[in-house]
Specification:
The chain has strands at residues 24-26, 35-38. It is mainly beta.
Length: 48
Amino acid sequence: MKNTKIHLCDSCKKIFPECEPVESEFGDGYGNDNVIECSGYEKDDDKE
């Protein structure tokens, strides 16, 4: 089961909305605008 409350942008090297993901999927977290899948996601270890 997919976590629909996470927000990948919080741990990504890129900055939304300046990034240009090819495909992304939104979840049902606060505001219903949290990104749960993104083809352009690059994990930023400094943001953990």
